[in-house]
Write a structure and sequence with these properties.
Largest sheet: 7 strands, mixed
CATH architecture: 3-Layer(aba) Sandwich
Helix content: 40-55%
Strand order of the largest sheet: 3-2-1-4-5-7-6
Structural class: alpha/beta
Number of strands: 7
Bound molecules: S-adenosylmethionine
Number of domains: 1
CATH topology: Rossmann fold
Distance between the termini: 22 Å
Radius of gyration: 17 Å
Strand content: 15-25%
CATH superfamily: Vaccinia Virus protein VP39
CATH class: Alpha Beta
Length: 242
């Protein structure tokens, strides 16, 4: 199951997508933290940490953070775990990894999520922050998550979801489609930062709906598949490897 259809204004075939996305994040990497900090009113770290705690991340666990970007999920997890020695970050963009390495002493693996050079049955907890939309195929990727998790291991996927209602959807579109990209450019004076946020919006707008994400997790063999959503927008998907 692909998370969104081909965006013809960006690339013409599905196989062109990874290279397009990698270049986009390489070029936007230096701007990612300031733009995300501004766009979520400085709440990003607190929210990520709170979500990790609420869903059971605890000291002593081995954590895999997939699509780790500049390390925002991993930096939050370091505070929950008390150290970054048991954190592994998987990320395809060298630009994003470069920024993350300045903040973390974790293990970094440059790879896409769909096929990771990692051993079976190894991690207690696996996180994904705002990257579900970039995976080539949800089911394939979730099967890979299932492979690397220990039995009883948990997945936590955070994602911004377009709300269903007319007004909620209108405000979401206005903020993420117009206001956020515009101010990203003003703040950073970078067209690349604006492009990254426009792409962020386009992929959110065209993303499969929550029921399909949950179905893909179940198809991959996970149980206790759940979604909670703050304000109908900030989705938290959880699932357990039996
Ligand atoms: C919006 S950033 C999220 C970064 C971080 N997780 C956070 O919470 O802020 C999305 C990240 O997904 C990465 N990404 C894109 N395609 C990917 C793939 N196929 N597998 C794993 N990561 C991917 C991008 O390079 C980028 O760093």
């Amino acid at each position: 199951m692909i998370p969104h259809p081909v965006l013809e204004n960006r690339y013409s075939k599905p196989e062109e997508r990874p290279a397009y996305v990698k270049q986009l994040f390489n070029e936007g990497a230096e701007h990612y933290d300031p733009v995300v900090g501004w766009g979520f009113f400085g709440t990003g770290k607190l929210y990520r940490k709170d979500a990790q705690r609420r869903h059971g991340l605890a000291p002593g666990m081995k954590l895999l953070d997939v699509a780790s970007g500049t390390g925002l999920m991993a930096v939050a997890a370091k505070e929950v775990l008390g150290s970054d020695q048991d954190i592994t970050c998987v990320e395809p963009s060298d630009g994003m990894i470069g920024v993350a390495k300045k903040k973390l002493n974790a293990t970094f693996v440059q790879s896409g999520a769909e096929s990771m050079p990692l051993p079976d049955d190894t991690y207690d907890f696996l996180t994904v922050g705002y990257a579900l939309r970039h995976f080539a195929d949800l089911e394939t990727t979730f099967i890979e998550f299932h492979r690397v998790l220990k039995s009883g291991g948990k997945v936590l996927i955070l994602e911004a979801t377009r709300p269903d209602g007319k007004w909620g959807s209108f405000l979401f579109r206005l903020y993420f489609g117009r206001i956020y990209p515009f101010f990203s450019r003003v703040l950073t004076r970078s067209k690349k930062a604006e492009e990254m946020m426009v792409y962020f919006w386009e992929t959110m707008d065209s993303c499969v709906r929550p029921a399909e994400v949950q179905a893909a997790l179940s198809q991959a063999g996970f149980t206790e598949v759940k979604r909670t959503a703050l304000m109908g927008v900030f989705s938290e998907y959880t699932a357990v490897k039996p």
